[in-house]
Amino acid sequence: MKKTILLICIVILCISCKKDDDAYEPVPNALDLELVALLENISEGQGIAYFELPSETDFANIPQDPLNPITAEKVALGQLLVHETATGGNPKMEINRGMYSCATCHPAAASFFSAVRKGISEGGSGFGIKGEGRVKMPSNLMPNDSIDALPVKVPTLLNVAYQEVALWNGSLGGAGINAPFVAQNAEDFPENLLGFQGLEVQGMIGQTAHRLKIDEEFATQFGYKPLFDAAYPEVPVSERYSSLNGALAIAAFNRTVLANQAPWQEWLRGNSNALTDKQKRGAVVFFDKGKCYECHTGPALKSNEFYAFGMGDLNLNSDISKSFRLNPTKGRGEFTGIEEDFFKFKVPTLYNLKDTPFYGHGGTFNTIQQVIEYKNNGEKENNAVPDSRLAIQFGNLNLTEADISNLTDFIENGLFDPNVARYAPESVLSGNCIPSNDAQARIDLGCD
C-alpha cells in the first residue's frame, strides 16, 4: 500500500512540472491513477508490488526450488553451460560434436526465444544475427530423422523462475501441481521422481533429449572443474562434476534471467514517464476489459495454469526427429490423463514478445496483434479442440480497434526489456563460438 501511495505522489509531482505556458494547470494523469486502482483491485490488496520483478542478483526474492537454492557460483557456472557449445558432446553424427548449446535455440539476441519456428539444435547450420538464419543441414550430410528439432515453438527463458513446471504441457517437474501425476508418468519421466521443480528437471532431461554432455570428462577437458568446485563445495569430489549438478546450475542461472528493465517494470517502480499514454491505455485494457490478467498475472505476467485457445500445432508431418517424450499436440491432458486437460497449454510470459516472429505453441501467428485479434474474434484454428474446452476468455472480449492497437503497443513495447544481452557471456571456456559453432554460424556470428 505504501508503494501505491508513493507512485500516486510521484505521478502527481511529475505531471505538475511547470510548462512554458503560464496558463498550464497541473493535473494528475488519470491513466496512471486508473492503472493503480486496477492493480490494487486484482492483486487482492498487494498493489503494484505484486507485479514487480526482482533484480537478477536479488536471489532471496527470486522464486527457486528449495532443493536447489540459487547461489552466485551456480549462476556463474550455469550461464556458461547454457552458452557453451562444447556441451554438444553427444551428437548422433561426429561432425556435429561441439557445434551447439542450449542457447542455440534460446539465444539472448532473440530474448532467449528461437528466432525460427522450429528450433534446431544438432543438425542445424548457420545462425544469422538473432538465430533467424538457422536451417537444417542438407540430408546428404545428416538424415532428416536424425536432426534434433523441437516439435513445438521454443519458449523463452525469460521469467521462467515464475513457473513450477516446464514445457508447454507442464510435464517436467516432480513437485507442486505435478506431484499427483508423477507416479503414472514415471516410465516416461523418471527424473520427476527426484522431486525437483520443472526447471531443474528440464536441465536434466534436456541434456539427454538434446544430446548434451556435461560430466567429469567435459569439466576436465574444457576447464570447468574450478567452477563446479566453487558451486558445489559440499558435494564429494567423486560426485561433483556430474550432469545432475550441471542441470542444477543451468536451472539456477535460468531463474535469474528476468525482464526487469522493461518500461512496465520502470513504471511499477515509480517512473510514470516510462510508459507512453498509448501504452498506459493498453495496460488499462490488459487489466480490465481485455481480461488478459485472468491468465497472465504476477511479476512475469504468466501463471501455472493451462488453457485451450484452439491454436494450431507446429507442422509435425516433417520427418525431423522429435526431442521430447509426449505428443505435444495433446497439451496438458497427455501428461495428467484428465479428459478436460487435453488441448490446454501452459500460460507463457508476455515479455519481449517482439523479439520472436512466431506466437502460440505451434508458432502459427506472426504478430502480437494477430494473436489479440484471434482471441477477440473467437474463431479457433484447430477444429480438433472441442468448443466446450475453450477458455471462457476466447471470443468474449469485445475489443475495439483502438483497444487492440493500444493493447498491442503495451505488450509489444511496454513489456520489452531492451537489455537482455546482459545475460549472455562474452565468451566460454572452450573458446568456441557461441551460441552456435558450426562453420556457417561462425561466419554469421563473426567468429571467423
UniProtKB/TrEMBL annotation:
GO cellular component: cell envelope
Alphabetically ordered keywords of this record: Heme, Iron, Metal-binding, Oxidoreductase, Peroxidase
Cytochrome c domain span: 277-415
GO molecular function terms noted in the UniProt entry: cytochrome-c peroxidase activity; electron transfer activity; heme binding; metal ion binding
Cited Pfam families: CCP_MauG (PF03150)
Main location per the UniProt record: other
SUPFAM superfamilies in the record: Cytochrome c
Cellular compartment(s): Cell envelope
Family annotation (InterPro entries): Cyt_c-like_dom, Cyt_c-like_dom_sf, Cytochrome_c_Peroxidase/MauG, Di-haem_cyt_c_peroxidsae
Record has Iron as a keyword: yes
Protein name: Cytochrome-c peroxidase
Source organism per UniProt: Cochleicola gelatinilyticus
Species classification: Bacteria, Pseudomonadati, Bacteroidota, Flavobacteriia, Flavobacteriales
